[in-house]
Amino acid sequence: MPVLGDDFQEGGDGPFDVLPMLGTLIVLLALAVMAALVYVGDAKADDTVKQGMAGKDVGDGRAAIAKAGYDERSAEAARNLELLLAEGHERAEGHRCPICFLFVGLPMDKHARMNICCMKLVCKGCELATHQRGLRGCPFCRTPRPADDTSRLAMVQKRVDKGDAEAINFISYKHFHGGLGLAKDVPRAIELWTEAAELGSVDAHYMLGSMYYHGDGVEEDKPRGIRHWQEAAM
What we know:
CATH topology of the domain at 146-233: Serine Threonine Protein Phosphatase 5, Tetratricopeptide repeat
Radius of gyration: 49 Å
Order of helices and strands: HHEEHHHHHH
Mean pLDDT: 78
Largest sheet: 2 strands, antiparallel
Shape: elongated
Strand order of the largest sheet: 1-2
CATH superfamily of the domain at 146-233: Tetratricopeptide repeat domain
Number of strands: 2
Structural class: mainly alpha
């Protein structure tokens, strides 16, 4: 009985050829190597994609954090702006007309007039309405208007003697600049402004702040001037 490797024949017409078998094995081996290389390449590609996605996720996370911080700052800025627009600086009650109770338009010296008989600042609208009704005196207290500086000074002095802070502040200006028959007297003006400030006059605090800060008529004292300005601001 022949053994493999000899001229073994079975179902064929020719001798058994080893070379085709080797070629087949080589082809199969090559295919296996190629499959392995493709698998490794796909794995590396998957890793690259995963790393890219991870990097993208990190980048997206950082962008989200940065955007969240930006949004928070924007929201805070919006809240501050809304607060400023809603509140802002309040006007003093002394800026209201005592007749119609509306705030006098700015600038106040163009839209209202001080009546020295009662030291009330009345808007020109109420003054016009009073005039149209035939009244010629003060729109607030109905006192006839003084005809000269002597009468005006007497009216103001009457209010000063009663401790009216606005009247004291008013006459301080007349001493500082000279007016209503009064000679210019800066020390007296400062003395009266100090008294008016103690009684709560905001304008007196402002004037004292300016004079002490700049050394106008008094020895310069910036801290004292700032304190007066702070009182005026409050």
